[in-house]
Specification:
about 25% strand, NAD(P)/FAD-dependent oxidoreductase, alpha/beta, FAD/NAD(P)-binding domain, four-stranded parallel β-sheet, 2 domains, single chain, about 450 residues, NADH dehydrogenase activity, about 30% helix
């Protein structure tokens, strides 16, 4: 009798943690494990702003999934574009564009999230994101290119527009991105004697009335003071009304000449979730505290893609889409999947938040570990210590620590690679949100495949 087939979709914190635990705890031959991912690495997403600012190299935050000597999971290079829970088939588009059906006995939906956008004129055509490794590398190239182009230009208006930068989103990603990139441009401008440093202006805007409200009023104010001390203009209660190639219009009526718009205003669950036709909570798959999808045999979900009940908070709360929850959910889900295989009882996911860390670059940071409010160097030590300890391999830890030490000693560098220099890449070019099938298309696809076989 063939062993049960376990299919894990997504190689983020949740998916990789689940796969690792399954590999450790399943007996040889007890089940077959396959992992669907377009890239054979786990991306340490919280450190992307440091990649964009050049403090870390891209390789240091992309942990290879093929290095492990104990590795026994089959990697399917591609992306899941639909799931038929009745036929127990996942439809996958491989990186070769071949569309295949992958049958499963158990499926783990850890497909993560995509950048959340709104119906704002020009947004997807002109904004850049901070959700993928390629985006972070591209944003770095683009920002440094604006300095070079401003230096080469004789038009004062063009110079001014190239040296204005807008980041939308006052959460962790947006705040860290604005802080880290502002530090990069401030250090770089010293090497451009023809440019007036006063022309460089960073804007951080958010529709919310407070910056990072999860940190609390005291730390939120501390972060705001750091940003304003660095001459980052923070506008709250404001968003984007319209985006164009050379200007951005704010909802308060201001029109800003600008060639750089970075959009970090939240995330939404992967469009894969909509293909199931199941109940959702704000787009995330509604699952039980055991991380199971009710009414669907062998379907589990977790991480950003799932609305996991937060039993530690109660009152109908769901776990926030953070790496901290994703990693711990991965372990619980793996244990519950193994319990299902062995016909044992399942456990609820319960985890109290350990706190929050925000790295603002250099010696600046704000952190709230276990409810203790910190800022400055102590907060920076906690922030980097937390990120360093969360890296999955010793190779990754060594690379990150080496990068941090080298940056502390030698400072920033301002090399750009020329990545996509002839084409302006935007949100549309990095996140393929239009690749998914409808529930009806999935049924047709799996039915025709069944007939052919």
């Amino acid at each position: 009798m063939a062993p049960p087939r376990i299919l894990v979709v997504g190689a983020g914190f949740a998916g990789v943690e689940c796969v690792q635990r399954l590999e450790r705890k399943l007996a040889p031959g007890e089940a077959e494990i396959a992992l669907v991912t377009p890239f054979s690495y786990q991306l340490y997403l919280p450190l992307l702003p440091q990649v964009a600012s050049g403090v870390l190299t891209p390789q240091s935050v992309a942990v290879s999934l093929r290095r492990s000597r104990r590795h026994r999971t089959r990697i399917i290079p591609g992306g899941a574009i639909g799931v038929d829970t009745e036929a127990k088939v996942c439809v996958i588009r491989k990186i070769t564009d071949e569309v295949v059906n992958e049958p499963y006995d158990y499926i783990v939906l850890a497909a993560g999230s995509v950048t959340r956008t709104f119906d704002i004129p020009g947004l997807v055509e002109h904004a850049r994101g901070m959700k993928t490794l390629a985006e972070a590398a591209y944003v770095r190239d683009h920002v440094i290119a604006q300095l070079d182009l401003a230096d080469a230009s004789h038009d004062e208006a063009e110079r001014a527009s190239r040296l204005q930068f807008v980041v939308v989103g006052g959460g962790y990603a947006g705040t860290e991105t604005a802080a880290c990139l502002q530090r990069l441009t401030t250090n770089a401008i010293r090497h451009y004697p023809r440019l007036d440093p006063k022309l460089i202006k960073w804007h951080l805007i958010d529709i919310a009335p407070k910056l990072m409200p999860e940190l609390g009023d005291k730390l939120g104010r501390a972060a705001l003071e750091v940003l304003r001390r660095r001459n980052i203009e923070v506008s709250l209660g404001v968003s984007i009304a319209k985006a164009a190639a050379e200007e951005v219009t704010f909802t308060d009526g201001r029109v800003l000449p600008c060639r750089t718009l970075i959009w970090t205003a939240g995330v939404a669950a992967s469009p894969l979730i909509a293909t199931l036709g199941a109940e959702t909570v704000r787009g995330r798959l509604a699952v039980t505290p055991q991380l199971k999808l009710p009414g669907a045999d062998g379907v589990f979900s977790l991480g950003d893609a799932a609305a996991v009940p937060d039993l530690a908070k109660g009152d109908g709360a769901v776990c926030p889409p953070t790496a901290q929850h994703a990693m711990r959910q991965g372990k619980v889900l793996a244990d519950n999947l193994i319990a299902s295989l062995r016909r044992q009882p399942l456990k609820d996911y319960v985890h109290k938040d350990l706190g929050l860390v925000v790295d603002l670059g250099g010696r600046d940071a704000v952190s709230k570990p276990l409810g203790i409010e910190l800022h400055g160097l102590p907060a920076q030590a906690v922030a980097r210590g937390y990120h360093w300890s969360a890296l999955r391999t010793n190779v990754a830890k060594t690379r990150v620590m080496t990068n941090w030490l080298l940056n502390a000693v030698a400072g920033d560098d301002f090399v750009r690679t020329g990545f996509q220099a002839r084409k302006a890449a935007t949100l549309r070019d990095f996140e393929y949100t239009d690749a998914y099938l409808t529930p009806e298309q999935i049924k047709e696809h799996t039915a025709s495949a069944t007939i052919r076989h």
